[in-house]
Amino acid sequence: MKTTFLTLLVILGSNAFAQTHQLVKHDGSEHAVNFIKNENGILYYSNPESYEQQKVSAYAVASLKNLKTSDVQTVSAKVAIAAKCDFDKVTVLSRKDQTAGLNQVATYTGILNKTKGISSSEQFEQTIQSIKQKAAAKGYPFITVTKKTNGDYEAVAYNY
Question: What is the pTM of this model?
Answer without folding.
Answer: 0.79
